[in-house]
Amino acid sequence: MNSRRGVKIVLAATLITAALASGCGKSDYQAESYVYKEVGGCNLQADVLRIPTEEPQPAILWFHPGGLITGSRGWIDRDHILRYVQAGYTVVALDYRLAPETKLAEIVEDVADGYAWLREQGPQSFNIDPQRIALVGHSAGGYLALTAGFTLEPRPMAIVSFYGYGDISGLWYSQPSPFYSQQDEVSEEVALADIQSNGMPCGLSADQLDSRFQFYVRTRQLGTWPLEVSGHDPAQEVAWFRAFEPIQNMDASYPPTLLLHGQSDEDVPFEQAEGLAAALDAAGVEHELISDPSWGHMFDQAFAGEPAVDAALEGVIAFLDAHLGQQGP
After folding, report:
1. Domains in the chain with CATH codes
2. CA-based radius of gyration for the chain
3. Which of 60, 232, 253, 230 is nearest to 152 (CA)?
4. pLDDT digits (tens, 9 = 90+) for 245-255
5. Which end of the chain is more exposed for a tag (fewer CB within 10 A), N or C?
6. What is residue 4's predicted lDDT score, i.e. its pLDDT?
7. Could you tell me the maximum CA-CA distance found in the chain, to the nearest angstrom?
């Protein structure tokens, strides 16, 4: 690990005022950005979002979606931030290196380094309780949170996965996706437009992140996502993938887990959530699965404000409170 931890590089909007989606008033929360790791000439950053208090706060380490190929810490939904900070949590939204320039093993290393930085620097830098950390992730970020559940020491206290997955070598990822195959074919030229030929992606613009999504779509159309992201062939190296698949690595030490997944998800099949729930049950791990027949991928954005989604997000807070010992403001 090559890192310089605890360096604050931006004091971004010292107090950001935004109305709660529920209309229950306003919340002023402090936003600060830190470098948690330097690697290959790239500063990996974390945004710390909180309402400062005298008492140490429990923390949420948040991982963004994007198929491990695109996305950034800035993709966290504002409504989710407000719900978390109003409930008394410090939210730490983490960037990590992106595939295919960076391979899966190194991305998982970034997660471990971010977690270690949070535990070491968080208490003095922004007053978190290092014993009360939960992981929350969406889609590929949910996969990273679930993977961290068996790779991190000490274990986080809870995991929340929004439409994440536990299997990355199965046919759903290593064969052409029926959903993405219905879309216009993405050419190699278009897919590679913002993929770096040398080094790693760093400091990408919003347009570049959008462009990189085309590379993700092409991998789904060809069934090459596992190979491109890991550098290993799932057809020939099954054993290698097992070390990176949550569904293969759950035992009694695995953290309590909340899964949220739409039954109409065409990107990450609902069967992924069902398989994870079954594995958690077999391991004797406390878990919940929140789903709805009408929800697709990214349902919390597509159906934002609807009663079922509001109830699901309230369920996330209740789950975190139960396992992090938070009593509310």
Report:
1. 7-170+237-324 (3.40.50.1820)
2. 19
3. 253
4. 999 999 999 99
5. C
6. 32
7. 56
Q: What size, in residues, is the chain?
A: 329
CB 79 within 8 Å of CB 73: no
Which tokens go with 170?
């199965």
Instruction: Write down the pLDDT at residue 27.
Output: 54
How many other β-carbons are positioned within 10 Å of the β-carbon of residue 26?
Answer: 9
For 199, counting Cβ atoms within 10 Å of its Cβ (0-12 exposed, 13-18 middle, 19+ buried), the class is exposed
Contacts for 296 with CB less than 8 Å, ≥ 6 apart: 262, 264, 265, 266, 267, 302
| Residue recorded with tokens 């054993």 | 239
> CA–CA separation, 36 vs 121, rounded Å?
9
Complete DSSP assignment for 193-259: TTS-SSS---S--HHHHHHHHHHHHHHHHHT-HHHHHHSS-TTT-HHHHHTT-GGGS--TTSPPEEE
The first and second tokens of residue 95, run together, are 């960037």
Q: Which of 124, 55, 64 is nearest to 97 (CA)?
A: 64
